[in-house]
Amino acid sequence: MTIHQNLIAGEWTGSAGAENINPSDTNEVVGLYASASVQDVADAIAAAKAAFPAWSRSGILERHSILRKTSDEILARKDELGALLAREEGKTLPEAIGETIRAAQIFDFFAGEALRLAGEVLPSVRPNIGVEITREPLGVIGIITPWNFPIAIPAWKIAPALCYGNTIVFKPADLVPGCSWAVVDILHRAGLPKGVLNLVMGKGSVVGQAMLDSPVLSGLTFTGSVGTGKRVALSSVEHGRKYQLEMGGKNPMVVLDDADLTVAVEAAANSAFFSTGQRCTASSRLIVTEGIHDKFVAALTEKLKTLNVDNAVKAGTHIGPVVDAKQLKTDTDYIEIGRQEGAKLAFGGELISRDTPGFYLQPTLFTEATNQMRISREEIFGPVASVIRVKDYEEALAVANDTPFGLSSGIATTSLKHATHFKRNAEAGMVMVNLPTAGVDFHVPFGGRKGSSFGPREQGKYAAEFFTTVKTAYTLA
Length: 477
Hints:
Elements: E1 3-4, E2 6-8, E3 11-13, E4 17-22, E5 25-34, H1 38-56, H2 60-76, H3 78-89, H4 93-114, E6 120-123, E7 129-137, E8 140-144, H5 152-163, E9 167-171, H6 177-189, E10 197-199, H7 204-212, E11 219-223, H8 226-239, E12 242-246, E13 251-255, H9 261-273, E14 283-289, H10 290-305, H11 325-341, E15 344-347, E16 364-369, H12 374-377, E17 384-390, H13 393-401, E18 405-406, E19 408-412, H14 416-425, E20 430-433, E21 449-450, E22 453-454, H15 464-467, E23 468-476
Parallel strand pairs: 1-5, 8-9, 8-11, 9-10, 11-12, 13-14, 13-19, 14-17, 16-17, 19-20
Antiparallel strand pairs: 2-3, 4-5, 6-7, 7-23, 12-22, 15-16, 18-21
C-alpha cells in the first residue's frame, strides 16, 4: 500500500507508515500515512520561515487563484473525498459529503477575501499628517486540528492563513490524516510555492509537542480538548506568540412548554446524536420545562427508535460508529457513571453488532438527570444526552448558563419574548432558536465563551483578527 508522505519545503518525504483504520470496519486499512519526527517539524518550521518573506508580499490574484482552484477541485471530488471522510472518521456518507462541500465553500470564500484586502485612511488630529491603517500577515502559523471534522476544520484554518499571506506548519489529528493529506495535495498542485504549506502528520506527543516548543511560530491555532488547549496556551505565553483555542462544549438545548413538539424533537435529536454526537457544538443537555417534559421525552424516545446505527457508507445509516476504541470506552464509561449517579437510562446505551466489525453504540438518552451530575458537567463527545427537568423559563436559562463552557446554546419556543431574551442572555458564543445547536454557516464567525474558546473568532471576515496584525503608519504631507 502506498505511503502518503509529509510535505516539507515543497517535497514529499517520510516512509514510516501509520495505519488509518476504518471505524465502520476495523478490518479495513484506509491508507498508510507517514509519521513526522521532531527533526521533520523543525525542518517544516524552517521552510515556512524561509518562504514567508516572498509569500507575505505575493499578489492578491495569485492567492485568489490558488484558493479558487482548491475550492473547485474539492467540489469536483466531493463524492470521492466524502467517502474517504466517512471511511476514516465514521461520519455518515451524506454528512461527510456535506462537510466536503463546506470545505470547498470555505476556500471559495477566502479566495474572494484575498481580493477584498483593505485598510483605512484617516486624518490625523495634527495638521498635514495622514494616517494609514493596514493589516499584515502574522508570520509562520502552526495549525493543529481535531479528528471530528477532518476536512472542514483544516479548511477554515488553512484558507484564511493563506489568504492573508501567512505560511503554515499543519498537523492534522493522527486518527484521520486522509482528508488533510488530500487537501494539502490539492493546494500543492494548485501552485503554492515551496515551503508555504508544510504537512507534518503523526502523534501529538511528538509532532504537536515539537510545534508547542518552537519559538519560531508567530501564531498557533488549535481545536481539540481542554487539556491540550491549556498546554497550547501556556507554551504560547512562554514564547510570546499569538494563539487561538477552540475547545470543549456542554451545550444546552432548552425546550419550553410552548415549543412546537416536532421542531423541538428534531432539533434535539440532530443536536445530540447526529455525527455520533462527536461535535463540540452537540447538545448533550436537554433542559425541558415541566409542562412539555413527558411528551418531549416520549416523542424523542420514539424518534431514537427510528435512527439506524450502521456502517457510515451504507445507504440508510443515520448514525455511524464512534471514531475508535478509546472514544467508545469513554462513552460507555460515562453511561455507567450516569447510572451510578442516579439518572434513568431511558433509551439505548448498548453496544451493537453489525455486518462489519466496528465501534457501534446505540444513541443513549438519560432522564431524571440534574445539572450537577458528571454527565451534565463534563463533555462526553459521544451520542449521549441527558434530560434535565426545570420549572420554567427562568430556571431553564439559569441551568443553561450553569456550565464552565459557552460554545453554543439553543432554545425551542414559539414565544418571541423568550426567544429574544434568550438570544441576549445565553452565555454562549452562538445561539440557535428552533434549530440544532450544531450546524453553522461558513461565512459568519464561529467561537464561544468561557472554557470553550479563547482568542479571535474563526471563519468569515472575523478570521482576519487572528491571521493578521494591524499596522498604523503616519505620513507628513
